[in-house]
Queue: 2 jobs
Job 1
Amino acid sequence: MSDRSKTLNPEIPPLSGSDKSSDLQDVYVEAGRGGVVKKQVTPEVIRGNQHLEELFRRVNSLLGDHDDQAAPFLPRVPDTLEEMGLREDDAQKLVLKFLLQKGSALGREISNQVKIPFSILFPMLKDWKNEQLVSYRAAGEMGDYVFAIVEHGRERARKFNEECSYFGSAPVGLPEYLKAMEMQTIAGKEATEEDLQQAFSDLLITETMFDRLGPAINSGRGMFLFGEPGNGKTSIAERITRCFGDSVWIPRTLGIDGDIIRLFDPGVHEELRNEQVGGLFDLSGVDPRWVRIRRPTIVAGGELTMNELEVTQNPVTKICEAPLQLKSNCGTLVIDDFGRQTMPVDVLLNRWIVPLEKRFDYLNLPSGKKIQVPFDQLIIFSTNLEPSDLVDGAFLRRIPYKIEVPDPSREHFRKLFQIMAPKVGLLYDIADIDYLIDTHYVAKKRPFRNCQPRDLLQQVRNFCIYKKSPKVVTREALDFAVENYFSMM
């Protein structure tokens, strides 16, 4: 039995019945040896005992279940600064710059700011007090102190600020990031019919479209979605990510040869909060430099520029921003309105022709160093233009799936009205919907679009509110909506 197992065993409360006690202990011993616990099932003997069940879950959380397919990678909290890939100077820079702005703060508050575990940071804070960089302002809870920066510390912090003004989460090194991306990659992920039906449960998608999307998603390489405006290309692209799983872990920042690169972006990433984090102690067992997010779906439209595809550095703060393809790793990157970007199409394609083939990219850092990073996302080019009119054969070969999103059929169009009317708060008669189709579409030889039922019903609703009439779809209201909607189309 390992030393770790021996340490854990005394913590297991005595249970009645030797067999039951042995069963529970075997679970702890197996986890203590670093073995794989196949199923995290609460033993029958402790079921109903709230204290013991919580203890069981906590041990499994801290030791980990490496067979959990929903979370194959979990960044464990480090025990030393060396395990974090940091030097004491790196920690000192962040802390002193933070205190330069804050003035004073509790040790645990500083720890939470720079995301260095308190057990690692606190001894360094005491050393820096001896070096007269900080001082004790007051005593805090649980043996903590309020630390205040002193003049010698301010001088050093100002020099650090001139190099880079960043004082957030301690960065994660490139090797750790590469390992995390490898363990969470979308390569090899398999999407079945059931996966697609669940991911697209809020959209009306035909079986034919499912059969086209499924193999393209499983390729993990990318696709063109093309068709007329308003048929739902962007909506389809945004839901494809759901087929790869719920969440991934990414570093808040990357540290590469002194350059700080912000990777976590609240503008495009949705953080999934950990209920175990908070209060005086963090009992999650997770390295706080990492953040769990929903698998990213990043959409870049006509405003996309070449700068967003490269590492950019703020000339004042010296903080770098990660490019879009790095932020979308392990997820989906949608190039919406492809062909309408301000940059020429061939410039964008030349930038990505090698990454699409090799599944890795090269980025230039402000220091002049070039690094290799994963290009691990599903690239979706969404356009209402014909792909062959935009790109040459060499690029089309690298995007093997070209999927047209067609106009809906009459039955599909009617079904969309039936789905959307209750969502906008309207009652309807199917005969009035047939009137709309026959009068304003068939007679006018006007094509159906998937977005039109929603758009027309919203106009009907606004018409009813204006007239103070019941929120019911009428022919009068439909005529009014069509006249407004198609006045310039």
Note: Residues 1-48, 63-71 have pLDDT under 50 and may be disordered.
Job 2
Amino acid sequence: MTATRARTARGGTRPVRLSPEDVLRLGLIGVRVRTVRAVLSALGISIGIATMIMVTRIPSSSQQALLRQLTALGTNLLQAQPRQDGGSAVSLPRNADMMARRIGPVTHAAAVANAHRSIQRTDRSDPDDSIGINVLAARDNLLSTVNGSVYSGRFFTTATDRYPTVVLDYQAASVLGFKKLVPGEPAPQVVIDHRWFTVIGILNPMPLTRDLEQSDLVGWPAATRYLHFDGHPTVIYVKAREDAIDDVRGVLPATLDPQVPDLVQVSRPSDALAAKRASEHSFSGLFLGLAGVALLVGGPPRTANQLRRDWRQRSTPPPRPQLQ
């Protein structure tokens, strides 16, 4: 006779397993018997989950807004230009920006070049009187590369970059006395190298490209045709994936000028990228802390009597067995 049968024969109980229906029925009995406790427990869990969602979603939305603003500044933007070699700058190849686009992580590449020409408000101005505005030849994709935008008018296209048209930076427009281009009215004109150029656009400020401020931009073909531009770019702007920005910075000099890569100077990633990476780590720690506090506060409530009863049960030693 087995041990289970022996206990059954002596009047003992045989252990059984509860079916899922029995477990559900037993749980419903507990809910009916202790309704208030069940409601408070469910309410505490619901409050805890809702609190955790709220305290994590609010900082998360703030983080996303901050990251979008930092990304709009140009956190993945690099700037390359030739170094000074014995007092004279080395010229970059004419297709240097196109060579930069061949790098895998690079998404945009554009170029500007100093045309070494002066600009005047009218043809009555003294040609030797410089007003501190640079005349730059620019590629059509410059704005998309440097995250620029047009305040008034329009930028160059493949249909307009060959004509004597000019786009002014907001500071250059203020110096020249232009505030806004009004649609339907005749476009203003300026004089560059004794030739009239029509102003077709005014740009918004660009915080990370200070070298473009106080400049007027002329289309690349127009600069070659009207201003006798030699076609060699002065500055190359490169936009790449943020996770590969350091790798692109390392190979960019040899890509732009394979013969003398040491004479190509590449800017370091912007401070906005460092601020973006620091904010990501800070918000990650904040999320973990808030989630832990939310779970602690929103746990099932326990009354003072329950806590006191648990303490007594833990502190009271078990009863000694009675000798028969």
Note: The first helix runs from residue 3 to 9.
